[in-house]
Specification:
446 residues; Oxidized Rhodanese, domain 1; 3 domains; 16 helices; 24 strands; globular
Length: 446
């Protein structure tokens, strides 16, 4: 049974072993969803299985182990915590089923895929980042020097080590569409080996050289926190158990004091509310499934964080998202939100929203990923990915800007960054490029 994290584009898998126990593949940090599911099914989570050291989220294996499970992971991952190490070709009995480790290095050097067998019959392949629907996971998270060698190793390991398995075998990847770890994957979460043999570049490329050229050309940018979470997962993050911490409510005086001490202010309200009025210098990252990716991309680790939220927003979701990539220093939220700020007569800033039928303000600025820009964009637009905007701000055209992304949330984040840096005459295209294209307004291609 898959448990999908839509924000990070990842899936973990809950597997009933048939003897009253269960196994969870690549669990996220919060153990509660797995434990709740086990409780509903009358099972005990006995094993937490890791395919590799994750760079895009903190593993929940140690949390599940603290609740009575055992960690299974590649021996080469060298976890600092107690675990059962597995290497290529090793088999392990898990409640009457057999788990076989298959060495599939590439996405990471220690990467293992796992074949689940009932007797001698293969019933499932948990492929981690080695084989995704329509692609595979990136190989540039270790070092620049290893990116091409790992891509070549990925090609060889998948083609050679999976060659004897049947086309009908279900494949359950960890990464998928929407994950910055994936390269070429689309929104389909699971697949079969036969589907991939007939469509995946790993199998369709005529040779290793051709695959390496194509694969490396398709690697986009990724959040900087990817460079530290492998080490966090190796040594282990702090344990929280099944109860997440509460987000403290701070009176306005305490909130302002922490802000003056250098805490970063995150406004997680919807973009329309931020546009209508916000605290000068705050960073707009609307609370949605992708919240955590942009928090990790734009805010340095270990920074003290303050939040502004709307009354009906889910505080537990915000805390869970922060913790799953290791943002632990959550100081609290403004008590009463912007209403209390306004009641105190404190100053606020606004950002103009323009509809797709309105005239643009000055130069269009496209802050989508390069792959999105390459498909189509507004004619005359300047392109800078949101993750690079702070560094590139000085190179932007002078004068007014209308900022856009796909829907609008990323463009409001971009506007808040520029506004905090002192840039004025900013507008955001409400509804983003999709609204623009839906009105049949002109677009440029390529």
């Amino acid at each position: 049974m898959p448990l999908v994290d839509e924000g990070l584009g990842n899936s973990s898998y809950f597997v009933s072993l048939g003897d009253g126990r269960a196994l969870v593949v690549d669990p996220s940090r919060d153990p509660k969803p797995y434990l709740d599911l086990a409780r509903r099914l009358g099972l005990q989570v006995a094993f937490a299985l890791e395919t590799h050291l994750h760079a895009d989220f903190i593993s929940g294996s140690r949390e599940l182990a603290a609740q009575g499970g055992s960690i299974l992971a590649p021996t080469a991952s060298q976890l600092a915590t107690e675990y059962h190490g597995l290497a290529d070709g090793e088999q392990l009995d898990v409640g009457g089923l057999t788990l076989e480790a298959i060495g599939t290095p590439g996405h990471t050097p220690e990467h293992l895929s796992y074949l689940l067998l009932e007797g001698s019959a293969p019933v499932a392949l948990f492929s981690g980042g080695a084989l995704l629907h329509g692609g595979s996971a990136r190989t540039d998270l270790i070092s620049g020097e290893q990116t091409e060698p790992l891509a070549r190793e990925l090609y060889r390991s998948v083609r050679e080590r999976l060659s004897g398995l049947p086309d009908s075998l279900p494949v359950f990847p960890t990464h998928g569409g929407g994950s910055f770890c994936s390269a070429g994957a689309d929104g389909q979460r699971t697949t079969t080996l036969g589907q991939e043999r007939h469509a995946n570049p790993l199998f369709m490329a005529p040779n290793e050289d051709a695959f390496a050229r194509m694969f490396l050309k398709g690697l986009g940018t990724y959040p900087p926190y990817f460079l530290r979470l492998r080490d966090v997962n190796r040594r282990g993050a702090p344990l929280y158990g099944t109860r997440l911490r509460d987000l403290r409510s701070l009176p306005i005086e305490d909130f302002r004091r922490h802000s003056a001490m250098g805490a970063t202010l995150i406004d997680a309200r919807p973009l329309t509310e931020f546009a209508a009025g916000h605290i000068q210098g705050s960073l707009s990252i609307a609370l949605r499934p992708a919240f955590v990716s942009w928090l990790g991309w734009l805010v340095p680790e270990n920074r003290a964080l303050l939040f502004v939220l709307s009354p009906d927003q889910d505080r537990e979701d915000l805390v869970r998202q922060c913790l799953k990539i290791g943002y632990e220093n959550l100081v609290g939220e403004l008590e009463g939100g912007m209403a209390s700020w306004r009641s105190a007569g404190l100053p606020e800033s606004t950002i103009e929203l323009r509809g797709a039928d309105d005239d643009l303000l000055g130069t269009p600025l496209d802050v989508r990923q390069a792959s999105e820009w390459a498909l189509d964009h507004i004619p005359g637009a300047t392109h800078v990915e949101l993750g690079s905007l702070t560094r590139a701000a000085a190179t932007l055209p002078p004068g007014p800007l209308t900022i856009y992304c796909r829907h609008g949330d990323r463009s409001m984040t971009a506007a808040s960054l520029l506004d905090a840096a002192g840039r004025r005459n900013l507008a955001v295209l409400d509804g983003g490029f999709e609204a623009w294209a839906s009105r049949h307004r002109s677009v440029a291609v390529g």
